[in-house]
């Protein structure tokens, strides 16, 4: 009997030891991880990191033996106005009171007991350039040289031209956003004839609307409008207000090609409530000389470094332009510059 009691005692001790081992092994990190995550979130907000700057966030369940925990990964695109070093230091300081294990490198990893609970991955926000190619409609073949560049290109199509319909149908099939390249009255109209589809200052409000509707119908479903010529028209507040109200009715944005030194488009667009962008650089007004075009890209580079984004306009008829663009793509990428559609600039 005494022997049986000893066996039972030993079994009970073993059972208790096993139970204690399981309890210890099944350590719950949930509350601890939530505290770390809350501290991280608060610090990001204090450092002007917005929800849109957290480009990816995901939770992964992890297991080691009888232990389970969650690993949180946040990928953060750090805006230009946020000092990266200061942000990293603030994040580390915010969790120190919880005595975690912190691994510093290109990214920040935070954990405990040799386990990673939070991983912060940082990306430098890219500078953005939107390239616009004007004057499509005369020639359908020249487009291929630009499509083969394999970067976003914002094509702008003239209304009522020989290949207008064929080109816009192709873009719709390829799901490529494009613009209506709207002819507007220039200075010295006798020398710079804008074509029969042009909207003129002499037109009544109704005539402006009717001409716009005709032009829009001929190009299908553009995402926006930019002006062809128009140096005189874009200086007139009253007429621009009429035009922009029609553009607004169709839910389109306006890109001022900046053919005038004193355009009113942006100011009027704000009053009317139309999204408006303004061109920064003409790439090929200097001609078809590739070296001169490259110098314009140097100017573009300066603009995007200063403003963090830029728009440049070229023309479909420039035969050397595609090759020049192809040559500068790697250099721009090295400078952390990406090519985007105009709508991406509107979303900023």
Summarize the structure.
The protein is an alpha/beta fold and 348 residues long. Helix content is 41%, strand content 25%. Helix 2 packs antiparallel against helix 3 (84-95).
> Uncertain spans, ≥5 residues at pLDDT below 50?
17-25
Briefly note the CATH topology name of the largest domain: TIM Barrel
Q: In CATH, what is the homologous superfamily of the largest domain? A: Glycoside hydrolase/deacetylase
Write the CATH architecture name of the largest domain: Alpha-Beta Barrel
Structural class: alpha/beta
Strand tally, please?
14
Give structural notes.
The chain is an alpha/beta fold. It has two domains: 30-124, Beta Polymerase, domain 2 (2-Layer Sandwich); 127-346, TIM Barrel (Alpha-Beta Barrel), CATH 3.20.20. Helices cover 41% and strands 25% of the residues. The chain has eleven helices and 14 strands. The strands form two sheets. Strands 6, 7, 8, 9, 10, 11, 12, 13 and 14 form a nine-stranded parallel sheet that branches. Strand 8, helix 6 and strand 9 (224-229) form a beta-alpha-beta unit. It is elongated, with a radius of gyration of 30 Å. Mean pLDDT is 92; it is low at 17-25.
What distinguishing features does this structure have?
25% strand, single chain, nine-stranded parallel β-sheet, 2 domains, alpha/beta, 348 residues, five-stranded mixed β-sheet, elongated, TIM Barrel, Beta Polymerase, domain 2, 14 strands
């Amino acid at each position: 009997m005494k022997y049986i009691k000893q066996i039972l005692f030993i079994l009970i001790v073993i059972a208790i030891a096993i139970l204690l081992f399981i309890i210890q092994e099944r350590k719950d990190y949930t509350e601890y991880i939530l505290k770390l995550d809350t501290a991280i979130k608060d610090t990001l907000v204090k450092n002007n990191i917005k929800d849109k700057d957290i480009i990816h966030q995901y939770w992964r369940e992890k297991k080691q033996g009888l232990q389970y925990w969650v690993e949180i990964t946040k990928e953060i695109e750090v805006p230009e106005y946020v000092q990266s070093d200061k942000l990293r230091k603030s994040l580390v300081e915010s969790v120190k009171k919880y005595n975690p294990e912190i691994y510093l490198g290109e990214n920040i990893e935070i954990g405990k007991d040799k386990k990673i609970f939070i991983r912060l991955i940082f990306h430098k926000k890219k500078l953005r350039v939107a390239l616009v190619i004007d004057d499509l409609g005369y020639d359908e073949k020249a487009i291929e040289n630009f499509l083969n560049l394999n970067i976003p290109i914002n094509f702008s199509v003239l209304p009522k031209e020989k290949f207008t319909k064929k080109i816009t149908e192709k873009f719709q099939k390829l799901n490529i956003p494009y613009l209506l390249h709207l002819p507007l009255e220039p200075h010295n109209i006798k020398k710079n004839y804008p074509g029969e589809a042009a909207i003129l200052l002499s037109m009544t409000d109704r005539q402006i609307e009717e001409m716009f509707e005709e032009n829009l119908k001929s190009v299908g479903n553009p995402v926006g409008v930019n002006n062809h010529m128009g140096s005189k028209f874009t200086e007139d507040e009253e007429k621009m207000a009429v035009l922009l109200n029609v553009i607004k009715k169709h839910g389109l944005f306006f890109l001022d090609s900046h053919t005038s030194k004193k355009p009113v488009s942006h100011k009027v667009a704000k009053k009317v409530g139309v999204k408006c962008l303004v061109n920064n650089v003409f790439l090929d007004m200097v001609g078809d000389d590739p070296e001169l075009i490259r110098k314009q890209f140097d100017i573009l580079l300066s603009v995007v470094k200063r403003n963090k984004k830029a728009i440049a306009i070229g023309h479909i008829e420039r035969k050397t332009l595609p090759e020049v663009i192809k040559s500068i793509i790697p250099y721009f990428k090295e400078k952390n510059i990406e090519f985007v559609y105009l709508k991406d600039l509107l979303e900023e």
